[in-house]
Amino acid sequence: MSNPVRVRFAPSPTGFLHVGSGHSALANWLFARQSGGEFLLRIEDTDAERNRPELIDNVLEMLEWLGLTWDGTPIKQSDRGDLYADAAAKLVASGAVYACECTGEQVQARNKEAGGKPGYDGHCRDKGLEPGPGRALRFRTPREGRTGWMDLIRDEISFANSDIEDFVVVRGNGAPMFLLANAFDDADMGITHVIRGEDHVNSTPKYLMLLEALGLAAPQAFAHMPLLVNEGRKKLSKRRDDVSMSDYRDRGYLPEAMVNYLSLLGWGPPDGVEVRPVSEIVELYRLEDVNASPAFFDQKKLSFVNAEHIRMLPPNEFVERTKAFLSHGDASLKALSTMTVEVQERVRTLSEVEPMIEFLVVDEPEMDEGSWTKAITKGKSVPEMLDATISRLEELDDWSPAPIEAAVRGAAVDAGI
């Protein structure tokens, strides 16, 4: 009998939670919820130079906003240093790792001189150096055979061991590398399925080697999610692309719409209905149906999905969710209440509501003088259009939307537009 499902989301606090991490977190959460398993959270903060502790709050806040609630108390790797030190000592005792005194510059210089492939050349592998300050610990990678696994998304994957360098497990300052902490924690936490991004494929054979050397069981299965790409089909970049989850929240995207859209990146529901409640996605989503090819993060489609979810809201809930995006308080709410249906049918994000109703709230609308002057002097059509519109509107007795629209369209005809 297999163990109950346990998955984890393990972000590093080096930046705000972005859509790529959200994509992986969602896949883990969906798998846990549909299987009755546990979704655990682990903060991988062993890289002291790059970590920004204040960003942990952003990760937690964004997961809560998305509705990706986790089970138990989040684990921080920075609190588990003694466990990693014990694991490293076990590797030293078994001969699975060796001490290395090479600097990065020395390795690069030797590789350049030899004209060989990049990576460590095994210079200290057989020197028999004693571990100590300033000396890293490298894993003694097997020279023969292959290391592989059956991936739920990519089928069978394997690497020739001879192509894998002797990788660093512990830095010269004694700090554990990501791979050691990551592999040890998964085994220690009883993780049954490792679901993560495609960028971890190349590190997975090292992960498996470490677990074997430590005498720890490997997870039951792996699933490496597709890479997310931009319009140029290049990997999404934190510096170049609009990827911050909190930015989307602040611009008025609904969490259920974001979850819905992220689920569609690499996957499609069997009935072809893409816009649907999260509860239905939990029932339908299958890792085995996820496409391994890169998935295009299409902001236009995200906005479309968001607009559809906005229209699915009951009018009173739409107004309630819009409150945070209104700057004129009760006056804005009063204005919105007079045209809730019309606004809800037209906006794509909640931040678009205020510009649509602002003319009912402010005493004088803000005007771009340059644009207005350019438009008004471009030809007779603009003033003629305004005069024709005024004439048509003055004739109205019924000020409901349909007669107003008919009057404006008639004014366009009157002005010859």
Gyration radius, in Å: 29 Å
Main-sheet strand order equals: 1-2-3
What do the pLDDT scores average to? 93
Strand content: 5-15%
Instruction: Give the overall shape, derived from the CA principal axes.
Output: elongated
Tally of extended strands? 12
Succession of helices and strands: EHEHEHEHEEEEHEHEEHHHEHHHHHHHH
Task: Estimate percent helicity.
Answer: 40-55%
Low-pLDDT stretches = none
**Total helical segments:** 17
The largest β sheet comes out as: 3 strands, parallel
Measured between the Cα atoms of the first and last residue, the distance is 75 Å
The oligomerization state is single chain
Structural class call reads alpha/beta
In short:
The chain is built from 17 helices and 12 strands. The chain is an alpha/beta fold and 417 residues long.
Q: What is the topology?
A:
Elements: E1 6-9, H1 19-35, E2 38-43, H2 55-66, E3 75-76, H3 81-94, E4 97-100, H4 104-114, E5 136-139, E6 146-151, E7 155-160, E8 168-170, H5 178-188, E9 193-197, H6 204-214, E10 221-225, E11 228-229, H7 245-250, H8 255-263, H9 278-284, E12 295-296, H10 299-312, H11 315-322, H12 329-338, H13 340-346, H14 353-357, H15 369-376, H16 381-394, H17 401-414
Parallel strand pairs: 1-2, 2-3, 9-10, 11-12
Antiparallel strand pairs: 4-5, 5-8, 6-7
Helix pairs in contact: 5-6, 8-10, 16-17
